[in-house]
Amino acid sequence: MDPITGLAASAAGGGLFGLIGTALGRVAGHFETRQRLQHETERWAHETKLLELQRHARAEETEGELALAEVSGRWAGLSASMAADAAIGESYRWVSAVRGVTRPALTLLLWLIAGLIWIGADGAGRASIIETATFAATAATLWWFGDRGPRRGPTA
Question: Which spans are transmembrane here (predicted)?
Fold first, then answer.
């Protein structure tokens, strides 16, 4: 029986090592799956963060474009107003006198409105209202009185 016992021991030893190899393979597979899931989770978190940053960048770009369009519109309106004012020729003396008084009166009124808004506006709405009123008052002051400087005659 000695050869049969040796054969049985060899078969049992081979089976035991086969079972241990299978168990080690399954344990390694479990760790590989866990590592792959962790990697996928990190990748999706990174993708989500990247998409959020791209969305934020597009929102800021849109805000910038809107602000630029608003400022461009303001300057275009000011330019058109200046061109219209320059097209007005000389008229009767009383018309020129009324025109001469209109600019200072409107400027004073604009600064008065800006001051009243600043005093009466609440904290939340004050910033944008004051910016707009100050823009209008400053533009009026500099434009209306800036072109009143001494006129130079034609240079030869």
Answer: 6-28, 101-121, 127-145
